[in-house]
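Let us work through a complete example step by step.
Step 1: write down the sequence.
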Amino acid sequence: MPTYEYRCKTCQHTFEQFQSITAKPVRRCPECGKGVERLIGTGAGIIFRGSGFYCTDYRSDSYREKAKGDKAPAAGDAGGGSKSGGDGARETPPAPAPAAKGAEKKSRKDAKGKE
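Step 2: predict the structure and record it as tokens.
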């Protein structure tokens, strides 16, 4: 059951009322007896606890078996490769071999001379 917040239009008295969603809203201020308005509240945060709230909680048994099969080769892979534990698709390519020092100096001179 939600808690509704009300404010008196005359005396500005603000109060909360714990009532059912189907219950009729409060019409009179408990302080002065004049009319009240229901305020729009932000509500309370919802906390989901337990299983059943994530898309992976309701996966079929066949999906789970296939996922286990996919994970097994990656876990048993003792070869070099990536340390990320992924499927190998995201491995970084090897770094290019460094160029010869003479070629690097020559290309710098060419670049300076062309400017």
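Step 3: interpret the result. Strands lie at 3-8, 14-18, 36-39.
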